[in-house]
Amino acid sequence: MRTQISRSAAMILSLLLLGNLGSAQATSYQDWWNNPLLKGVGLSVGQQGRQLFVGWYMYDADTSPSFLVFYGTLDGNNTLTAPLRRFTGSPMPLYDSSLWSGEVIGTATIAFSSATAGTFSYQIDGQGESQAGSFTIQRYTFNPIDLSGVYEGASRYTATSCGGNDGSHDQPESFTITQDGNNLRLETSNEGCTYEGVIQQQGTHFTGSGNFYCNSGSTGTWSSPDIQALDIAMTLSYTAASDGGCRIDGRAGGVRLAD
């Protein structure tokens, strides 16, 4: 009964997902980000819609740990430039809200070049400081995620050079994913295809590529620049190119069914 109820709920959610695959913010940047060469320095990115709130933990000129923030709306869905702020307040546990204050000490820019990489730059010119710099960032992985499971969902894709199948398509879809380390196997029910390849986890997202084969006899290669793992769901963008020249560009997602 639990699985049947979960499948019914998943079908409803998949319809909502299908309606939003083309219109929703393409990438969520919410995660921990860092540069592996900069020990103890990183960014915590929170995202709601196109609004970002970024905390930058770093060290002051006297080597003391510090925490700066900036926030605002993404420009072009991949860049945020905003005032850089430093706050001070009361120590715990005897918190005194009257001691809380903050001021703008410069500007910061976070620019994402892909779903898993970007550049952070800053200019500090307040509180007696004057410094500027930049460094590349990537999602920080501190715990492996297993995508294995059965998902009920939907896909939205555009077919090119595929004969009578050319154009845009929406369809419900079920996915069965088996993951063994970095090796991934994804089977689709309606499409009747199996995708196999290697994935690389970066924070809560993955990238991957490999080969596919279908019941129709079609074979080819696939790649995904962004597979996002959520608590009970996953979404992915992908490109698949058959050996016969057909190309599929799309997005898909599904809700994980209960065991």
Write the layout of secondary structure elements.
Blueprint: H1 2-20, E1 31-34, E2 42-48, E3 51-59, E4 65-73, E5 79-88, E6 101-112, E7 117-124, E8 131-139, E9 149-160, E10 167-180, E11 183-188, E12 193-202, E13 205-214, E14 219-229, E15 233-242, E16 247-256
Antiparallel strand pairs: 1-2, 1-8, 2-3, 3-4, 4-5, 5-6, 6-7, 7-8, 9-10, 9-16, 10-11, 11-12, 12-13, 13-14, 14-15, 15-16
Put simply, the count of helices is 1
| CATH secondary-structure class of the largest domain | Mainly Beta
Number of domains: 2
Residues in helices, as a percent range: under 10%
Number of strands: 16
Mean pLDDT: 88
Fourth-level CATH superfamily of the largest domain: Quinohemoprotein amine dehydrogenase alpha subunit, domain 2
Low-confidence parts lasting 5 or more residues at pLDDT below 50? 1-5
Round the Cα radius of gyration to an integer and report it.
Answer: 22 Å
Helix and strand pattern: HEEEEEEEEEEEEEEEE
Describe this structure in words.
The protein is mainly beta and about 260 residues long. The chain has two domains: about 1-25 and about 145-255, Quinohemoprotein amine dehydrogenase alpha subunit, domain 2 (Lipocalin), CATH 2.40.128; about 35-140. It has one helix spanning about 1-20, and strands spanning about 30-35, 40-50, 50-60, 65-75, 80-90, 100-110, 115-125, 130-140, 150-160, 165-180, 185-190, 195-200, 205-215, 220-230, 235-240, 245-255. It starts with a helix and ends with a strand.
